[in-house]
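A quick aside before the break. I want you to see a complete sequence-to-structure record at least once, exactly as it would be stored in a machine-readable document. Don't worry about memorizing anything.
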Amino acid sequence: MDSYGGDIINKILVKINDDTICFSKYYREISQENLNNTNVIDTKNLKFTEDYIKENLELMSTFLNLILLKFKIDKALIKNNDIAEVVLQLINSLKLIKYVYFSEDKDLSYSVSFLLLQNNNLEFVECYNLPEIMLKRFSNDIIHTRCLLSEPSAFFKYNNIKTYSDIYNKKTILISKLFDSKDIEDLVYFFETNRNLKYVEFKPYNSINLKTISKLINKNNNRKINIIIYEEDDTEQDILNDISFFDKLNKQFNVEIKIKYSKSYKEKNLFKEFNLSFFKLILVTCSVFSLVFFIVYSYNKNKNNKGIEKNLDAINNIVYDGEDLNDAVDEETKVEQQQEQQQEQQQEEKPIYVSSYYKNYSKIYDDLLQLNNDTIGWLTVNNTSINYPVVQYTDNDYYLNHAFDNSKNNIGWLFADYRNDMENISKNTIIYGHSSVSGGLMFSTLKNILQPNWYNNSKNLTISFSIKNEDIKWQVFSIYSIETTTDYITTDFYSDDSFLKFIDLIKSRSIKDFNVEVTSDDKILTLSTCYKDNNHRVVLHAKKL
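That is the input. The structure line, written in tokens, reads:
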């Protein structure tokens, strides 16, 4: 806000920070002749009066859209709520903006909320709070509020419901205690408000709670919600006594009740549920099915392996044709590679593919592009069989079941996350690949990194992921296995602080402290694959050297 001749003038500062366009008040005296001057310093630091934005909205939109496109910006930060209305009028005409953040801890007004509601391009909005009646009008889980609920009930606490947006967006709730009056009050509000609930879990089972929840579901939802009851030792008899009660609730309250029996219950009651003849029928059916499945699986496995071998032969031809260019590899390094390869071949079903190519990627990059124009780099991890070109597609599904030559193949190929920018390397470059394959192919040997003899060998802790015209080394700083989660596959970050919090999170999971400092200026590489089953992942993080 500026004053001149008794008038109050609002002026807005527009700055570009990485992938975010920031809007804030500009506090500085303005001379009379410069009241409407946009005062452009450069395309990353602009100043406009509110009147100028309102009167030139179309011009401003065209100008800023070009800037957003140039700097690949999809986030907007509004630092002051009292300029939000003018700024959102402008943002609503910027099609590239998908994420909007309000940093001030103040409620948004109705007018600002309406402007957000009118923008069909938004995927995520974070704010302190907004009017409850407006929050209900947004679809899916776009709105995320920071304002904490006052005096939440025990039900809210053990379900980690802290804000109003949590109430609207919660998909699964747990019922674990007998409800008191405060719980009932919050439950009524929750079911009147929530739009995304899919599952209600009972641990332990309680018939009074079940009836209360069933009534609330029936009263406030038009769709069926799954109720899952977990059988435990002290509730087994109660559940058995209430089976007919479950059927009644299913019909009366339009709910779907499922029982998850404990392992001990299944072991005790397995043979009670089947008579001998039916058991024999099941046994024969399973045997036939298993035989058919084994034949089909063996055929497909052999077909997929041959397809991958064909791809590797084609890649080898390019690599070996360029061996005379590989003068950077000294004799000692070649001897070490041969020794490591011999050791690994004894452990794997299939000879491991190792090439001398790793230091001369840019010299044969164009030849690889002739085989597959999705090629973006080459990845090598010491003391594993990982030594492949890496591809990138427009989604993260295609190379799950396609080989390097684009043929259909369930072994797939190593691919970078489609969100990663390979021209200006993202803060977090992520590479995926299948692990449940034989012969040491793709990421099947990435699990080696969890072994002490791997991560305690300093030679293994520098890996190579090179891109066109740049041979890049990466220093390992975190290794772990974890139940399936998506919190480590963020590619870009809203701020330096959010990036450093992310680094702290993934470092805290590591099975060893590698004493590697990662700063806000660093960029990192993430390797991720399935581990043991589809519910776990093995992950490696390394920083760019």
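Two observations worth writing down. The chain is about 35% helix and 20% strand. The radius of gyration is 29 Å. We'll return to this after the break.
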